Amino acid sequence: MKLLVSLLFALAAVSQAANAQEPPTRVGRLAFTEGTVALYQDAEIGWEKAYVNSPVTSENSIWTDPDSRAEMRVSGLALRLDEATQLDITTLDEDDLQAFVGRGSVAIRVRHFENSDRLDFATPHAQFRLFGNGRYRVDVDPDRDETVLTVFTGSASMRSSSGDVKVAAGAAVRVRGGDESWFVRERARTTAFDRWTLARDEKWIERSSTRYVSTDMTGYEDLDAYGEWYQEPEFGAIWFPSRVSSDWAPYRQGHWDYVRPWGWTWIAEEPWGYAPYHYGRWVYVRDRWGWYPGERVANPVWAPALVAWVGGSNFSVSISSGRAPAMGWYPLAPWERYEPWYRTNTTYVTRVNRVVRESPPRQYRDRDRTEWRYANRDRGATPSPAGAP
Question: What pTM was estimated for this model as a whole?
Answer without folding.
Answer: 0.88
